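FAQ

Q: What does a record look like?
A: Structure on top, sequence underneath. For example:
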């Protein structure tokens, strides 16, 4: 029964993407004008927050600790960044939606972790991953695959990549965990081939 939630969430994400829907104020669904679509403003994934139990498990599976640099792609309301900062990690969220950037910065402030956490308004496809030791994702499968080459080329060997719900195609995860019917994948960046 719990796996139904995962499929409903996936169907919702695909519906939003394929129908070109946009969310207006107070959660009303509106048809996007061509010049104001989620693609034109570079918002390639709708915001669907991960439940806190999943966030906690992602942080746990990645082994986030003091000294880590955690990058969260499409950081939404900042919950993953806040959880990582509470573990002592330096945490950076990347979010394109200006309203979510404001909300997440306020959430970081309320959580009292602004000395360890920041939110950058930036397209996730332009991020330089090289400073990160952990990257967290809750994107769509095709977006994961777009990021995969940069993750493999820019992250140092031993860095960890954690994804909620969606895998990386033929890149086999080092670990797969389940929490509340949801799947969490962990990959470890391999040593460079010479």
């Amino acid at each position: 029964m719990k796996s139904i939630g995962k499929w409903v969430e996936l169907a919702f994400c695909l519906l939003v993407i394929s129908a070109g829907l946009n969310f207006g104020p107070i959660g009303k669904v509106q048809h996007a004008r061509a010049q104001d679509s989620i693609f034109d403003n570079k918002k390639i994934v709708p915001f669907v927050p991960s439940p806190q139990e999943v966030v906690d498990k992602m942080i746990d599976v990645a082994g986030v600790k003091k000294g880590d640099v955690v990058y969260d792609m499409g950081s939404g309301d900042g919950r993953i960044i806040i959880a990582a900062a509470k573990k002592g990690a330096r945490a950076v969220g990347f979010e394109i939606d200006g309203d979510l950037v404001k909300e997440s910065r306020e959430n970081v402030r309320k959580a009292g972790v602004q000395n360890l956490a920041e939110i950058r308004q930036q397209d996730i496809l332009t991020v330089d991953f090289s400073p990160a030791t952990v990257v967290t994702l809750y994107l769509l499968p095709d977006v994961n695959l777009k990021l995969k080459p940069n993750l493999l080329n820019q992250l140092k060997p031993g860095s960890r990549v954690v994804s909620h719900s969606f895998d990386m195609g033929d890149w086999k995860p080092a670990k797969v965990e389940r929490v509340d019917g949801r799947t969490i994948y962990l990959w470890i960046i391999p040593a460079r081939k010479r």
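Q: Is there anything notable about this one?
A: The two ends are 47 Å apart (CA to CA).
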